[in-house]
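About this split. The held-out portion is used to measure sequence recovery: a designer receives only the structure tokens and must propose an amino acid at every position. Recovery is the fraction of positions where the proposal matches the reference. Here is one held-out target exactly as it appears in the evaluation file.
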């Protein structure tokens, strides 16, 4: 009888440990997936660069700009130009124009990716409007910049030899005003209001 209760306790402990590990894994899944995508460029996730590369390659690539607005956000949104030819390593600034068509304050934030998805690891953003929540006054029009380069290491990747065009796609999504306040407070707190 004592042996059976010990075995039952071991099984119960093992089951409880398994449940605890699974709960921990479920909480860690989102940040781990985010880290994986940022590190590998998986799914067209772009990289965030702090500075320009040291050299510019002679190879050029066409970057195509796409813009979308999700349902529920009364904004018009589009790039200043649809395509641009850039040399690998060349820092480029492109502007998107956004207008709030509503008669009220609206808040949105951009989601983005690049296509083909395998080049996400080579697409480096130095500055982007997608990093912040945008609060627009009624009828307000704003030019928003994205500063980027395509990493010259793309030329060394034989799997990317056929890539001639990269599409940078943005979709603006509605955000609640409370989310904007929380995001702005977090940024101000982190960087001391800079």
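Reference sequence for scoring:
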């Amino acid at each position: 009888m004592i042996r059976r209760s010990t075995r039952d306790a071991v099984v119960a402990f093992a089951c409880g440990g398994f449940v605890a590990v699974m709960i921990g894994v479920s909480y860690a899944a989102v940040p781990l997936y985010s880290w994986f995508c940022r590190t590998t460029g998986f799914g067209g996730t772009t990289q965030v660069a702090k500075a320009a590369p040291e050299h510019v390659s002679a190879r050029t690539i066409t970057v195509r700009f796409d813009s979308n607005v999700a349902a529920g956000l009364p904004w018009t949104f589009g790039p200043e130009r649809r395509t641009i030819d850039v040399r690998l390593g060349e820092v480029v600034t492109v502007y998107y124009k956004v207008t709030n068509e509503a008669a009220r304050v609206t808040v949105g934030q951009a989601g983005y990716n690049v296509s083909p998805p395998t080049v996400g690891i080579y697409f480096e953003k130095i500055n982007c409007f997608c990093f912040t929540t945008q609060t627009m006054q009624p009828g307000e029009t704003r030019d928003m910049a994205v500063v980027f380069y395509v990493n010259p290491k793309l030329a060394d990747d034989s799997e990317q030899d056929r890539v001639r065009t990269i599409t940078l796609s943005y979709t603006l999504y509605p955000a609640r005003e409370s989310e904007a306040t929380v995001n702005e407070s977090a940024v101000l707190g982190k960087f001391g209001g800079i």
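Annotator remark: The helical segments are 2-40, 177-191.
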